[in-house]
Write a structure and sequence with these properties.
The chain contains 13 helices and 5 strands. It is of the alpha+beta class and about 425 residues long. It has a 5-stranded mixed sheet with strand order 1-2-3-5-4, covered by helices on one side. A hairpin with a 3-residue loop joins strand 4 and strand 5. Helix 7 crosses helix 10. The protein is elongated. The N and C termini lie far apart (about 70 Å).
Length: about 425
């Protein structure tokens, strides 16, 4: 009975180790109970696939986890998904080798096999938890920060395939038939993975391009509407101004200074505020040559004026039409930052938003600064995924901005909180010719 239990556990142990590591690294998938059920159903099936080709269980589980991850997290970059899936397999392969040496060591002592299995597995799971946690919290964020997802996932997939090929060589060397079948399986697996990654990557790029065109069209339409609105306001004021001049001429001809003074105080003087504040001066954005960037900033500044939020903008340098990053990412980030700044200042009803766009020697620098409430939370809490200062399912936290910035190798987002202000800087590194 003891032998049967050990044999059955051995069939599933390796796959359970991989699943445990995967769930630690891809912690967000734990929220989906259907996915967890499918995962353990797959493990139950995979464990019974074959005793002749044990490595096939790994390949089947890899494909399942890969498809599961890309399906459940569609918006996630395909190379990041690949990185998340391949990491547990490499971790378990290394730890399994070390664990086998540890078991051989324990066999030298007078310990029964069941106890040895329990001890080794307990240590194995502790090691998996520690290493997988380090991968999730430190290694993957580091790779994302450096924009190395594609390179890292390609290297790790190559390492995994080499390890599987080595297992084939060690287990089936001398058996020509089994070796050929195994090589065909591993080649088919490699081609399939390449095809799926390439297809999804191309699809994501096309979707991003379509999204870019939709966003640009939407903002350009809003920009055109606001420009037309401003033009109509000017035409209306011009018509009113002609009437004002006619009235002035009438009072002057009557030589009635009392009525002229009253008319000035009631009708003419209030127009000073209208002229200085009522109409947004698009000249402030003349140095921004990129229409999509100009339109999003113009729309948000007009929105700020409607909410009676003061905005000071400075664009002393030419910001060219073509920038070294994907404009969709930049537009979305600027939209989020400006929306958050406007809402913050509108809530506290004091201070002003300061916006600056500069062309530095090696990079472009966009700065948005706004005053803050006294009870604002620490930066590390604001960066928690899904967190919003506006309550559940409202607003966009810093994690969204960090996710967007991680998509672009030449873009860096810096956030700083002082005692009085919230400052966000977007740095676009120029391409070296």
């Amino acid at each position: 009975m003891e032998v049967i239990v050990i044999v059955l556990y051995t069939l599933f142990s390796h796959l359970l180790n991989i699943a445990f590591s995967y769930l630690i690294i891809n912690k967000s998938i734990l929220k989906n109970t259907k996915v967890i059920f499918l995962l353990f159903l797959m493990i139950s099936s995979a464990g019974l696939i074959s005793d002749i080709y044990p490595f096939v269980n790994d390949l089947f589980l890899f494909l399942f986890l890969f498809l599961l991850t890309t399906k459940a997290q569609k918006k996630q970059d395909i190379f990041l998904s690949t990185l998340i899936v391949v990491s547990p397999f490499l971790i378990i392969n290394v730890l399994s080798f070390m664990n086998s040496k540890f078991i051989l060591l324990l066999l030298n002592f007078n310990i029964n096999m069941t106890s040895i299995i329990i001890i080794s597995e307990l240590i194995m799971y502790i090691a998996i938890f520690i290493i997988s946690s380090i991968v999730r919290k430190q290694l993957i964020p580091f790779i994302q920060g450096k924009k190395y997802e594609k390179i890292a996932s390609t290297i790790l997939i190559g390492c995994y395939i080499l390890l599987q090929s080595l297992e084939i060589y060690l287990n089936y060397f001398g058996d020509e038939w089994l070796s050929v079948v195994s090589i065909v399986i591993i080649l088919a697996f490699s081609i399939l993975i390449y095809y799926v990654i390439h297809s999804i990557s191309t699809s994501q790029e096309l979707k991003l391009e379509v999204e870019k065109q939709k966003i640009e069209l939407n903002y350009m339409n809003e920009y055109a509407k606001e420009t037309t609105k401003q033009y109509n306001e000017i035409r209306k004021f011009r018509h009113d101004y002609i009437n004002i001049l006619s009235s002035l001429d009438y009072f002057i001809q009557l030589n009635d200074l009392e009525k002229l003074s009253a008319y000035y105080e009631k009708t003419i003087k209030p127009t000073q505020k209208y002229l200085s504040e009522g109409i947004f001066n698009f000249q402030e954005l003349k140095n921004i040559e990129a229409d999509d960037i100009k339109s999003i900033i113009a729309i948000k500044l007009l929105s700020a004026k409607e909410k009676e939020v003061e905005v000071q903008i400075e664009v002393p340098d030419i910001i060219p039409k073509i920038l070294p990053v994907n404009s969709v990412v930049l537009i979305r980030m600027l939209g989020i930052i400006l929306d958050n700044s406007i809402e913050e200042v509108a809530d506290i009803k004091k201070g002003k938003i300061e916006v600056g766009l500069f062309d530095m020697e090696n990079h472009y620098l966009f700065i948005i600064k706004n005053p803050i409430k006294k009870d604002i939370l620490p930066l590390h809490q604001l960066e928690i995924q899904g967190y919003s200062t506006k309550g559940t399912n409202r607003g966009l936290g810093l994690s969204n901005l960090n996710e967007l910035s991680n998509r672009e190798k030449q873009l860096m987002l810096e956030t700083e909180i002082t005692s009085t202000a919230f400052i966000q800087k977007i740095t676009l590194t120029k391409e070296v010719n």
